[in-house]
Design a protein that fits this description.
Layout (H helix, E strand, L loop, with lengths): L9 H7 L12 E9 L4 H16 L10 E5 L4 E6 L3 E9 L16 H4 L5 E12 L5 H7 L8 E5 L4 E10 L2 E8 L4 H22 L1 H27 L4 H46 L2 E2 L6 H8 L1 H83 L8 H32 L1
Parallel strand pairs: 5-8
Antiparallel strand pairs: 1-4, 1-5, 2-3, 3-4, 6-7, 6-9, 7-8
Length: about 425
């Protein structure tokens, strides 16, 4: 291979599909998952924070450039991943026969370190993975409270395991119980990873829902104002009225485009996260249990309406932006037509002025012919008086004879000059 020039990203691209592998689980095991949004530069503090944990545990300093780290200590394992908007911390701890029933993976993590994790908590989940010998599914389902609270239950992995949850927060954590019937350690790890991803991706998808409600109120006000503006446009009596309506339309367009710029990413991310939730649910390969909704049914009933609302608001926002643009273009056309009519009237007035100026100029030219003829005849008179001894006629007769000659010559010269100027204008 040394004979070839290798692309600098070849190895990293190849390793990317092997990144973030699931953690194999030795049942029984408890898993605690925390996800933190990136806020106020928290991304830059994560590397230092992870190195501090490695030092406390006596482990080699981790490398975070790849965006994922696995730390293994005798008491727990940590899987850290950095995503575009959040970072996740999954803690795994093996459960032993003497452990209390309420044990969780965070108990083995240094308290001062876990309390100082940078970022803003967005998701927190406990998952208990127990063998079917310890928790028979039938007996567990018989103990579930029937009063009002929705419990989600299903067989997953084509019947290789059972999962139970209510998607409620208990002491700040959502909780899952996964009962292992015949999963291998890697299969158990993959199932737990899918459950964790369903939990974080559904929450991240729902971040767009409050934005959609806020934008919906803005769109309702804007649509009402747009309808009023269209009425005003229809009743506009002058170009000044139309320009006022156009100014208000321009402000509306700016408000809507500002909203589009602020929400496009959030709505697009919600759709992408929802697709990931659906994909992870499909990968669970659920089998429905009688009397209980599956995770797929629960998400379809509870999550899908919120995502559909976000999508509808995004479409409504785009449609409103297009409508404002069309109406603005229509009003600009009307204003442009009015301006063109005014320009035509102005040009007509200028044309009339030019015609008047031309007539005045022709009048002045006629008067100038008489004036030049008069001065020319006077020059002839002076010349004739000076040479009267050599002329066969008197100076007065010669002056009289010169007047028509001078007038005709001046008229022809002026006509020739106008013809030459007309030819130049034609070019």
């Amino acid at each position: 291979m040394s004979r070839y020039e290798e692309h600098p990203l070849r190895k990293s691209l190849n390793d990317e599909i092997h990144a973030r592998p699931p953690i194999p689980l030795q049942v029984p095991e408890c898993v605690t998952f925390l996800a933190f949004l990136h806020v106020d530069g928290s991304v830059g503090r994560e590397d230092i924070h992870l190195r501090q944990l490695a030092q406390q545990l006596g482990l080699p300093e981790p490398t975070t450039e790849t965006g994922h780290v696995i730390l293994e200590s005798p008491e727990f394992r940590l899987k850290w991943q950095r995503h575009n908007e959040f970072s996740s911390y999954a803690f795994f701890r093996h459960m032993y026969p003497g452990d209390a029933s309420d044990v969780d993976a965070l108990l083995a993590v240094p308290t001062s370190w876990r309390d100082a994790i940078p970022g803003q908590l967005i998701a927190a989940t406990h998952i208990e993975v127990k063998p079917i010998s310890e928790v028979p599914p039938d007996r567990f389902m018989s103990q579930l409270s029937p009063g009002g609270q929705t419990h989600v239950a299903a067989q997953i992995g084509d019947g290789a395991a059972w999962v139970f949850t209510d998607f409620q927060l208990h002491d700040g954590f959502s909780r899952f119980l996964m009962v292992d019937a015949s999963l291998t350690p890697r299969q158990a790890g993959r199932m737990v990873q899918r459950l964790l991803e369903i939990e974080i991706y559904r929450v991240m998808a729902l971040l767009a829902f409050p934005v959609a409600k806020q934008v919906g109120r803005l769109l309702s006000r804007t649509e009402d104002e747009l309808a009023d503006l269209m009425d005003d446009m229809g009743t506009a009596q002058s170009s000044e009225d139309e320009r006022k309506v156009l100014a208000r339309l321009t402000r509306l367009a700016a408000d809507v485009e500002r909203s589009v710029a602020k929400t496009t990413f959030r709505f697009g991310a919600a759709a992408a996260y929802y697709r990931l939730v659906q994909q992870r649910i499909d990968e669970l390969r659920e089998v429905r249990l009688s009397g209980y909704p599956t995770i797929s049914e629960f998400m379809e009933r509870r999550l899908a309406p919120a995502i559909n609302t976000c999508a509808a608001i995004a479409r409504r926002q785009d449609d409103l932006s297009a409508r404002i643009a069309r109406n603005s273009q229509l009003l600009r056309t009307r204003v442009d037509i009015e301006l063109e009519r005014q320009n035509q009237e102005l040009l007509a007035q200028m044309n009339n002025r030019a015609k008047l100026q031309l007539r005045l100029q022709e009048t002045v030219e006629g008067l100038s012919v008489f004036a030049i003829t008069y001065y020319g005849s006077q020059l002839v008179n002076y010349l004739a008086k000076g040479a009267k001894d050599f002329l066969p006629i008197t100076p007065e007769v010669l002056t009289a004879l010169s007047i028509p000659v001078i007038a005709i010559a001046i008229h022809l010269a002026a006509k020739r000059t106008r013809r030459m100027l007309s030819k130049e204008d034609g070019h």
